[in-house]
Amino acid sequence: MVLQTLVTYGLALAIPALYLAYRHFYNSPPVPAQRREERPVKSIMQAPREDLAPPKDDPYTLEELKEYDGSKPGSKIYVAIKGTIFDVTHKADVYGPGRSYSIFAGKDGSKGLGMSSLKPEHAVADYSDLNESDMKVLNDWHSFFSKRYNIVGKVVDPPATDSSSL
Ligand code: HEM
Ligand SMILES: *[C@@H]1O[C@H](CO)[C@@H](O)[C@H](O)[C@H]1NC(C)=O
């Protein structure tokens, strides 16, 4: 498993960001259009779940969300996307301290998810300056998380995503 991830990682380092985003959702090699529906869409990502709890609407500020970055032993780990807060505690191997995607733990890192960026300066809630393609990547992530993680609340101090309010 570890070796497999390392090999995948090494290979993918050379490919551009858009393909990278694509790869996170569809792992099949490119195929001619007329044959596409014959091939099962297989992803490197965990499968969707059937046992999700009803979504909760509990309010959290971004400040309160910081509590849930996994740094306290036994505490929950939350990741917010576009203000929706997901409980990713059972994937501490991915989101826990020092793990691959810990940058997104305890915060709303929507912009970084949209940009396929792990840079700390991109892991912020304000995604208002994303272009259309990065916006699609962000929406794909929201949908990905919605099918895999319980929704425990929403961020109540969302960024200005509506330029008419400026
Ligand atoms: C070097 C390129 C990358 C490779 C090879 C790669 C590979 C992978 C793999 C194999 C998984 C499944 C991991 C698991 O379930 O344990 C994964 C998940 C994920 N990747 Fe990447 N990744 C790369 C870069 C990135 C970047 C730049 C981002 C920034 C947005 C990102 C965001 C994610 C997220 C959010 C997950 C979801 C984990 C989950 O909740 O199941 N990845 N990636
Ligand atoms: C969208 O923005 C990203 C940088 O965040 C850039 O790499 C990409 O080329 C842009 N795409 C389009 C279609 O403008």
Automatic annotation (TrEMBL):
<keyword id="KW-1133">Transmembrane helix</keyword>
<feature type="region of interest" description="Disordered">
    <location>
        <begin position="31"/>
        <end position="59"/>
    </location>
</feature>
<feature type="compositionally biased region" description="Basic and acidic residues">
    <location>
        <begin position="48"/>
        <end position="59"/>
    </location>
</feature>
<dbReference type="Pfam" id="PF00173">
    <property type="entry name" value="Cyt-b5"/>
</dbReference>
<keyword id="KW-0812">Transmembrane</keyword>
<dbReference type="GO" id="GO:0016020">
    <property type="term" value="C:membrane"/>
</dbReference>
<keyword id="KW-0472">Membrane</keyword>
<comment type="similarity">
    <text>Belongs to the cytochrome b5 family. MAPR subfamily.</text>
</comment>
<dbReference type="InterPro" id="IPR050577">
    <property type="entry name" value="MAPR/NEUFC/NENF-like"/>
</dbReference>
<dbReference type="InterPro" id="IPR036400">
    <property type="entry name" value="Cyt_B5-like_heme/steroid_sf"/>
</dbReference>
<dbReference type="InterPro" id="IPR001199">
    <property type="entry name" value="Cyt_B5-like_heme/steroid-bd"/>
</dbReference>
<dbReference type="GO" id="GO:0020037">
    <property type="term" value="F:heme binding"/>
</dbReference>
<feature type="domain" description="Cytochrome b5 heme-binding">
    <location>
        <begin position="60"/>
        <end position="156"/>
    </location>
</feature>
<dbReference type="GO" id="GO:0005783">
    <property type="term" value="C:endoplasmic reticulum"/>
</dbReference>
<protein>
    <submittedName>
        <fullName>Cytochrome b5-like heme/steroid binding domain-containing protein</fullName>
    </submittedName>
</protein>
<feature type="transmembrane region" description="Helical">
    <location>
        <begin position="6"/>
        <end position="26"/>
    </location>
</feature>
